[in-house]
Amino acid sequence: MNRCKGKIALVTGAGRGIGAGIAKEFAEQGAFVFVSDLDESTAKSTAAEIISSGGAALGFGLDVTSGDDWARVTDLVAKEKGRLDILVNNAGIETIATIADITYEQWRRTQDINVDGVFRGIKSCLDLLKVSGADTPSGASIINLSSIAGLVGVTDQVAYNTSKGAVRIMTKAMAIEFAAHGYNIRVNSIHPGVIGTAMMDEVYETWQKNNTVGTQNMDEVKEIVVNMHPLKRIGSPKDIAMGAVYLGSDESGFVTGAELVIDGGWVAQ
C-alpha cells in the first residue's frame, strides 16, 4: 500500500480493461489519478469507482489523436495540480487484418492512435513531467503500453505489430534523450500478453470467424490461446497494473528504457 502516495498520474484509455485496472491500482496505492478515455462516460465511471473506494480521481474525455484535446487536458492538469509525476500512454486499438485485406485507412488509424497518440502524450505533458523530474530524486515516469506484438510477429496483425514495435523503440529513444538532457524523466514500456478484457473478447471473436488458430469453436479457440502460455492461463488487468505501479513508483528510480514483459512466458519460448 501507498507505493505511489502523493503522486499525480494521468492514464489514457482508462475507461475499461487494462487502463481502468492501472488507474484503480494507482489510486489504491495513494496516487491522485486523472482518468481519461475517448468515451468520456467510461472515464467518469472509472473515476467514480475510485472515489467510492476512498481514492482520488477526476474523469474526462480525451481523444489521444487530437492536439487540441491534449492541450485542454494539460491545461487542466496544470491548473489542478501544477505537475505530473506519472504518464501512462495506454490508449490503443487492435486491428486484425491480413496485408492483402487491410485498407490504408485502417493502417493509418492504427498508427494514429497507437503511435501518434503516444507521441502526442509525451510531447504535450513534457513540461508538467519536467516539474516533477526536478523535484524528486527518482524522477517523473512515463509508462508506454506496447505489447508482446511489439516483440514478436502475430498472424494477421501487421498494423498492430508495427504500431507496438514503434512504441517499443520510441520508449528507448525518449529514455536516452531525456537522460542526456538531464530532465530526470524515466521512460519504460510494458508488454502485456493475452489479458482478459473486452478488447480481447473482440479478438477471440475475430479469430473464431477467420479460423485464425485452426478452429471456429469458441471454447477451442480460448483453450488454444491459454495453451500458448507456459503458465497455462491468460493474464488479468491487475497483472499489468502491478507492473505499472512498480514503474511509476520510486522503487524503479534506476530503471529507464526498459521493457517489462508480462505475458505468462509467451515470448520466452
TrEMBL record:
E.C. number(s) listed in UniProt: 1.1.1.47
Segment forming the signal sequence: none
Highest rank taxon of the organism: Bacteria
PROSITE patterns on file: ADH_SHORT (PS00061)
Family to which this protein belongs: Belongs to the short-chain dehydrogenases/reductases (SDR) family.
GO molecular function: glucose 1-dehydrogenase [NAD(P)+] activity
Name of the molecule in the record: Glucose 1-dehydrogenase
Keywords recorded for this protein, A-Z: Oxidoreductase
